[in-house]
Each structure stands twice: as C-alpha cells, then as structure tokens.
Amino acid sequence: MSVIDIHRAHSLDKEHARAAAEALAKDLSRQFDVNYQWEGDLLKFKRSGVKGQLDLSEHDLHVHLELGLMLRPFKSRIEQEIHSQLDQIIGA
Asked: Which residues are CB-contacts of 18 (< 8 A; sequence separation ≥ 6)?
C-alpha cells in the first residue's frame, strides 16, 4: 500500500474551506474516477484500488489516500494534482 498524506493550512472560513474541499473532490473524481461523500466535516474517497479521506478542520485540510498496487505508478501524478488543486483553491 502506498500512502499520500498532505496537510495544508488555510485561513478560510468553514463555508469556503468546505467549498474548496468539494472542488478538490470533484476534480479528483473527474480525473481519477473516485467516488466521494461527506460525513460531517470528513470527505471520504473510494474506488477500486484507492481509499482515503479529506479531514476539514478550522485551520487545516488533511488529505490521506491509500493507493493499491495498480495505482502506485500514478502516486506522484495524483500527489502533484492534489497540491496543484490546493494551490488554486486555497492559495499557495
């Protein structure tokens, strides 16, 4: 199992932080065919070969993904895409 673990500090209010997380989830869903759903302030991701979550707190977004064998070769691409999206939606 290969893991992607990203913390990103933010200064957004809860509504805008949640919108940013939703934008990231939609992009990952579109690009990597990942399903997602909210459970409170926790956004869970799942598809064959990957599972994880985005935990939304007052000052931090924490993305944790576990990639299965088939998606390991794409780890750096997926990680780059997450960083790129976070830069765009909450600022670098």
From this structure: 41, 56
Question: What per-residue confidence (pLDDT) applies to 92?
Answer: 53
| Global confidence as pTM | 0.85
What is the structure's pLDDT at 88? Answer: 84
Helices 75-90, 14-32: inter-axial angle, 10-degree rounding = 150
The length of the chain in residues reads: 92
Backbone angles phi, psi at 12, to 5 degrees: -80, 150
* Contact by Cβ (8 Å): 27, 81: yes
Name the 3-class secondary structure at 56.
strand
